[in-house]
């Protein structure tokens, strides 16, 4: 029998399952029933991958704080990678024990998933963060990371799915450990985290995940387009090429994650912040703000303006699009992640999009007060109506065909002020 199954009580109630998880190495664990309302938006995907699912067991593994806080990214990434492997190992051990005890169980990976055919849509099977929040393992902070009441945001998350109906008293905690101190706002090198709670997904993804999926596409296409080594080196210098090799060889490297590094929330973390805030800022915030580094941005983005204004000592580098739609569903679904609200200042317009051809969709997009709203169907009176062959529209977005050709061939038709299309484009640079 599995060692863990021998080492723990074989009971399969909440207490017994918690004992199994802690014996496997988890630092905290909770439970969420498959019919919990918190899973409404992902239940179908969970059941598609785990048709036996009755209860989810989210768990926490804490990270070593000083590695994450270091301006040397090798230290931080080593901790991310090591704890990530530990998370998967813990999930594996829990599942092995449950199978030994005659139950069905399985787990998704902690890290970036493998359902690449869904790119750039939802590639993951389970979103660990909302599951952990539903189980009472923490609350989301302004930086969009789960903050555990004790360990703070220095944690990684895993989830095990079982066929057990588990009676438990787990529920979201009734307070948010986030201090709203805004240190994550001050530390973020791209301005992705705003003081009012707005989050610029594109800014974070373009820089922090430079050596993950989207950035790797840009890297490969740069090689393919380069007519010589010198032409390639005009876009990727030697240190960037070596860094990409390191990510391929040892695991993708995060460029920042400074929001985690400076967060003082959590019982085990907050003492130093309360004892001497000035010393805390000097030790953990200032080195990250003062670090001379390259920040990757899209040309014309809010992040480009932010870096120039807040961190003039950091180098800005323009990169290709890292979140390109492959169909009109992806275009409409991904707009919220790409929207640049400061570029939308002063724009008040309603757009109707009518897509024809292989994929037929109709949508209303409203931009007003620096906010974006995307709705299915044609609602109200548009300021600009765009009728487009769906495949042509995607080719246009990917710069594989020109707008003048599409207009002349009637593959794209506009009704209304065409200048509004230019204004629309500025809100989604690249």
Automatic annotation (TrEMBL):
UniProt xrefs under Gene3D superfamilies: 3.30.70.3270, SCP2 sterol-binding domain (3.30.1050.10)
Pfam families reported in the protein's UniProt record: Fer4 (PF00037), SCP2 (PF02036)
Domain 4Fe-4S ferredoxin-type: 169-198
The organism of origin for this protein: Methylocystis iwaonis
Domain of life: Bacteria
Matching PROSITE patterns: 4FE4S_FER_1, 4FE4S_FER_2
Name used for this protein in its record: 4Fe-4S ferredoxin-type domain-containing protein
Keyword annotations of the record: 4Fe-4S, Iron, Iron-sulfur, Metal-binding
Coiled coil ranges: none
Entries under PANTHER family matching the protein: EPOXYQUEUOSINE REDUCTASE
């Amino acid at each position: 029998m599995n060692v863990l199954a021998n080492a723990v009580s074989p009971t399969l109630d909440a207490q017994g399952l918690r004992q199994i998880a802690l014996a496997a190495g988890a630092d905290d664990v909770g439970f969420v029933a498959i019919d919990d309302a918190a899973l409404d938006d992902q239940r179908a995907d969970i059941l598609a991958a785990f048709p036996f699912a009755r209860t989810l067991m989210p768990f926490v593994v804490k990270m070593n704080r000083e590695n994450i806080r270091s301006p040397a990214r090798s230290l931080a990434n080593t901790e991310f990678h090591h704890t990530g492997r530990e998370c998967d190992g813990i999930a594996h051990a829990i599942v092995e024990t449950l199978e030994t005890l005659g139950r069905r169980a399985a787990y998704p990976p902690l890290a970036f998933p493998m359902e690449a055919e869904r790119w750039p849509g939802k590639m993951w099977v389970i979103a660990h963060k909302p599951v952990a929040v539903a189980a009472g393992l923490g609350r989301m902070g302004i930086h969009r990371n789960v903050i555990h009441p004790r360990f703070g945001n220095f944690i990684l998350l895993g989830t095990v799915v079982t066929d057990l109906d588990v009676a438990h008293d787990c529920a979201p905690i009734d307070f948010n450990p986030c201090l709203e101190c805004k240190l994550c706002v001050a530390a973020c090198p791209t301005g992705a985290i705003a003081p009012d709670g707005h989050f610029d997904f594109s800014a974070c993804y373009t820089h922090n995940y430079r050596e993950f999926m989207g950035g790797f596409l840009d890297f490969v296409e740069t090689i393919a387009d380069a007519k010589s080594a010198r032409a390639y080196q005009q876009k990727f210098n030697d240190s960037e090429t070596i860094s990409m090799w390191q990510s391929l060889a040892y695991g993708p490297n995060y460029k920042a994650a400074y929001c985690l590094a400076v967060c003082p929330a959590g019982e085990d973390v907050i003492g130093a912040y309360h004892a001497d805030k000035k010393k805390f800022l000097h030790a953990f915030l200032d080195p990250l703000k003062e670090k001379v580094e390259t920040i990757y941005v899209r040309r014309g983005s809010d992040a480009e303006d932010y870096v120039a204004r807040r961190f003039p000592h950091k180098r800005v580098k323009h990169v290709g699009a890292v979140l390109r739609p492959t169909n009109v569903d992806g275009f409409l679904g991904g707009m919220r992640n790409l929207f640049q609200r400061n570029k939308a200042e002063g724009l008040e317009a309603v757009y109707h999009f009518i897509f024809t051809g292989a994929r037929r969709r109709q949508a209303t997009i409203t931009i007003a007060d620096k906010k974006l709203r995307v709705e299915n169907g044609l609602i109200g009176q548009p300021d600009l109506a765009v009728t487009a062959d769906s495949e042509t529209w995607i080719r246009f977005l990917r710069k594989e065909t020109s707008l003048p050709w599409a207009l002349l061939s009637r593959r794209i038709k506009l009704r209304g002020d065409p200048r509004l299309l230019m204004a629309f484009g500025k809100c989604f640079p690249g």
